[in-house]
Amino acid sequence: MRTARTPRTRRAARAGQYTALLGYLLFLAFPLLWLLSTALKSPRELGSPHPTWIPRHPTLASVRQAFAEQPLAPAALNSLLVALATAAVTVLIATPMAYVMARHRTRAARAATGWVVVSQAFPFVLLIIPLFLVLKRLRLIDSLTGLVLVYVVWSLPFALWMLAGHVRAVPAELEEAAAVDGAGRLRTLASVTAPLLAPGIAATALFAFVTAWNEFFFALVLLKSPRRQTLPVVLTHFIGAEGVADLGPLAAAAFLATLPSLVFFALVQRRITSGLLTGAVKN
Amino acid sequence: MTEVAEARTPAAGAHPRAGLRTSDRGAWFLVLPALIPILLLSVGPLLYGVLLAFTDAQSGRTAATRWIGVLNFRDLLHDTLFWESFRIGLVWAVGVTVPQFLLALGLALLLNQDLRLRGLARALTIVPWAMPEVVVGIMWRLVYNPDAGVLNETLRGLGLGDGRDWLSGLATALPAVIVVGVWAGLPQTTVALLAGLQNVPRELREAAAVDGAGAWRRFRTVTWPALRPVALAITALNLIWNLNSFALVYVLTGGGPGGKTRLPMLFAYEEAFRYGQFGYAAAMGCVLVAVVSVLLAVFLAGRLRGGADA
Fold this sequence. Notes:
A: mainly alpha, B: mainly alpha, 71% helix, globular
């Protein structure tokens, strides 16, 4: 940074950096803005041969049409229930295991860490067929409970990885001090470790929520009846069999489906980024 | 590396943290709530899936399933459609991973600088990641739309032809979906590389700068060696994830036109849930696992080597 460069080359470099940054911002934001623009256009504007960049007469007609064409509200409710349940169960069962993985160098903990890495890599096809057969036997096909079960196991590897990173970030000396003071294991965990882990647990819950909210493949295979389907599956119904779509309602529904995740991320963006970074770095 | 070293030392039990390791029974008690679902719904089905690959299992008549040995694999060997989808899968995985890595590397270096809009850029970086893949697909369908799409309108505006139907063209479909793949996975790669850049000792970089090393020299001799383990890991994982992708291309093209974007996962999905050939689709899964295992071995080797270097 502190080379003996002339002010002019330095300024040129800065300008280049800002150009690149603006290009990146445009690249990131543009498709999303186009989605919003399409969603707000009037049917007549959508039919025009030369699409406008910004809708001339913004209208919610497409939103209304989207809700009329497909069961969006029930689908959103299904997605919400599934995502909340997935987040709650994942955090509940992953936190103790992540704790053991981070603090104990037992064979089981090492095997778990290895599995976490390996499981990230398995093709879903090999998993979905047997899962389909097992869930069918348990009469959990076309059931949100079955889907939650699958999602919990699916988000566990990364949840464990993130949480273990957060546990390692809590100094073990704190726990030892509590142990020396005569606190039992559970007492130590509840009163010393858990409060310090709260941000990590929140980030992990968020991760599990968004994963479940966005997931498509398992939902496509496991949910059959239209009123049980989650939002991503219902969204694909807007695209007709021939690939033709009613652009306005499609865009409106797609934008609405993204809102919860975007709001969540906007609220806790800093936390999740640092959570991801902690999980990544401490490993 | 420390983990491996400790594993080989019998005295690993005599750790200073002995206060917390009162009993392994306690540890097992904490592990079980996660371990049982993992075994029942992940490890179990995977093994079951491998077994299915050696049977003629079909949907609807699983009761009468017979063991047929390697017959599925022999059929697969002669299935030109499968190998075509496999080739497309490789082109897709490499075509997405490589440009994505280069872009992400540039961006990570950029976002590591003290720039004014950095906060906004970091916040927006999360957008493609937060979006459902289905929405990403729909969004880009709107961009690529032959009549009302922003891409064709821009090209027309620039006087670059009358535009075309990108996702239905035999030659353009695969490149078009690859662009979307790069877009969708860019943030994760960027964030991972940003995390990696935090491993680069600042003093070292500054010392190199004081010694008169140019930007490229500094990158090659200081930044890259520290970044390499993360870079290797994220690249291997991206290759694996891309080989397994489904939703994005399913929404964009459904595998068309004429199977030109039919990734292995789409092929296996159709085989299993449209034609009910569970055993055959499971065999495809096994072939993919074999390929992925090789990549995984590279990843693990890179991780260990990275640890040794540090």
